[in-house]
Amino acid sequence: VRYPSGVEVNLGNELTPKSVKNEPVVDWPVVEGAYYTLVMTDPDVPSRVSPTADAQVKHWLIVNIPENQVSSGESLAVYRGSGPPLGSGLHRYVFLVYKQLKPIVHSETILPTPGREGRTGFKVRDFAQKYKLGEPIAANFFVAQYDDYVGLRNARAKSGAKPTVAPTTRAAPIETTPTTTTPPPEPVIEQQMEIEEEVMTDSPPPTERPTRTRTRSPMKGNRRSQLRDWTWTGSDWARKVAKKPKFPQMICMNYDTYKSIQSVLGLPKN
């Protein structure tokens, strides 16, 4: 998940609401010819300390995505960036991808604007069950908290202010008398070029330094920097999770991602 501001979502890293205000680019492994559903939700409403199970906020919802061409999918809710309330702490913003069995014929209310109306009370679990999406095949999330940008955005939304553009006026054309300018004389550089040629001829040729090639095991060093958004971490807890039937198709996640998916889907904690 990459935003136009340059930041990337990396399994629970903290981002600012200003840096995620615009729609990101999302990519995931696909099956040729398959359709997918992409959803982004906030499960920490009103706060992460005391979340309400029925109060998820639908930040983004697109169905019938051919492979991973998000712009070609059917938008049910346009993207709305994060905007945690003041004093509510860090909120998680979870991206989930589902593989559809076939194109969805939905009966949902389409939200064509990024306003808050119609987005609360959303349940990812109920939506997935309604359209037989099964379990998510990919997931990622970031956390964000209130900052000054959220206050400005909310103030603009309440006032309904729209940017105004001052009318442009055309001034009468001014007649000017064409003037002719003589170009400056070209500098004489022949002598300088001869000196440079002599220096280059007299100087010994540079010696080539041997190049060293370093090889590194693909899983050594900084694991997180080498892992993509949905790569397998190989940790002990992940192997245990893989044996459980909760997310049989999930190609990868870390512990925080696993717990976030539990919260979004309303699964019992273990």
UniProtKB/TrEMBL annotation:
Residues 197-226 are annotated as: Disordered. It comes from Medioppia subpectinata. CDD domains: PEBP_euk. This is Phosphatidylethanolamine-binding protein. Residues 212-225 have a biased composition (Basic residues). PANTHER family: PHOSPHATIDYLETHANOLAMINE-BINDING PROTEIN (PTHR11362), PHOSPHATIDYLETHANOLAMINE-BINDING PROTEIN 4 (PTHR11362:SF82). Gene3D superfamilies: PEBP-like. It holds the Pfam family PBP.
